[in-house]
Amino acid sequence: MTLQSSTIFIDQLHLYAFHGVMEQERRVGAEYTVYARVHYNIKEALNSDDVANTLNYAELCAIVKEQMAQPSKLLEHVAGRICKAIFDRFPQATAVDLKLTKLNPPMGADCSGAGVEVHFNND
After folding, report:
1. What is the largest CA-CA distance in the chain?
2. Which of 87, 94, 82, 86 is nearest to 121 (CA)?
C-alpha cells in the first residue's frame, strides 16, 4: 500500500467576524465560513495512533478563529495571515488550501456568499 497524498481539513467552520472595506462592515460584522485543507505526510500518524504525530485539527481551528478575530479590510489579507499562521504552527505542512466566504455580502446582489480561495506551498 502506497500513500499518495494526505491532508487534514476543516469544512464549513462558521464564524462571525468584522472584515470589510466599508467601516460599517468592520463595525457591524458578518457571518463567514472557512474551509481549510492542510497537506502533510500522515504516515507517522497512520502507524503510531499518537496525536503527537499528526496535525491537530482542533489547533487548526484555533488558528483560524484567532486570525478571523483580527479585523481587516480585505479577505485576501485575512487568508494570507491564516496560511502564514498555519505554516508557523505546523512547519511539517507542505501546502494549504483555504476558502474564506462572506455570507450575504453587501454588494446589491442576492447570492449565498463571496470570498477568496487560495493555495500556498510551504517554501
Report:
1. 54
2. 94
Rounded to an integer, the average pLDDT of 14-38 is 94
> Residue 24: its pLDDT value, please?
86
Q: Indicate the average pLDDT of the chain.
A: 94
Which DSSP category does 69 fall into? T
Cβ pair 31, 14 in contact under 8 A: yes
Q: Is the pLDDT assigned to residue 69 strictly greater than 80? A: yes
How deeply is 29 buried, as exposed, middle or buried, from its count of CB atoms within 10 A (0-12, 13-18, 19+)? middle
Phi, psi of 33 (to 5 degrees): -125, 145
What Å distances lie between residue 114 and 25, 77, 80, CA to CA? 14, 15, 17
| Angstrom distance (rounded) from CA 34 to CA 21 | 19
